[in-house]
Model the fold of this input.
Amino acid sequence: MVYMKLSLVTFVASAALASAACKGAVNTRQNWLDMKPTAQAQYIAGVKLLHTPNAQGVSKLDEIGWMHNFNFANAHQAPHTLAWHRVLLRQYETALQTVTNDSTLAIPYWDWSADSQNPGASKVLDTFGHDGDAKQNMCITDGAFANWAVKVDDNGNSAPAHCLSRDWSSASGGMNQLHSFIAPEVLAEAFKETEYDNFRQRVESVPHNHLHNAMAGDMGGGWSPTDSIFWLQEIKCLSNSSTLLGTYIQWYRRRTGSTPFVIVLLYNIWYAR
Ligand SMILES: *[C@@H]1O[C@H](CO)[C@@H](O)[C@H](O)[C@H]1NC(C)=O
Ligand SMILES: *[C@@H]1O[C@H](CO)[C@@H](O)[C@H](O)[C@H]1NC(C)=O
Done:
């Protein structure tokens, strides 16, 4: 599976999003490169705790990766892509807060547009690892998550591991490097978009898909959340859009006169936990 044109789920009407009000304080998601070394170390330690297998042999991180893989077709290339991923990110963030006992922990972001002309040389990758090793099935062998494995199958059960991989040297036409990402100027143009779904398409179809497919390996498909660079990338895609859900709901209401039920449901399930 790769990031391409995919199907759309059907929405039905419902009313109240009011019950999904935010609980607790709002934490600021920071640029990874602006964080203090102690905060960076705490984040990495938290991710490692999330990667610890439970009694059934499946880690929380693998479970979240499975959720994304299982819903891959329905969670992309549709107006609700951004809202769906906001919920996923929040689940991951809350899981991290729980394992670290720190309710102020926030997922950092990689400002990959700042590194767009030579992303393979980004300092972010000094921690998050570079390309996979061609001699070892493209497994990631450097950084904080070197030699990690994904130990869950398509049904969410414990399974023989596949190594966490990236494959940007062969996937992007050789030269052992990642070719350029979308530049800040192009992204800034997308942020000027005033129609919700035009904006969503401009962010999802080009910058977002491109980064996944260029990094390839696990990042190129449904298992991408098991690669820890995923979270830093998605935050960048979704940041500066804190009212995005509201904008989406307004857009949907303008078209249909009702509130998108699936989003309300996702939020209610999540906040009711
Ligand atoms: C979090 O708190 C629990 C319960 O007090 C403790 O067992 C655990 O070691 C703590 N975890 C961290 C990362 O401090
Ligand atoms: C969001 O916008 C602010 C103000 O324009 C900017 O400083 C910040 O870097 C932006 N965040 C991201 C992740 O692009």
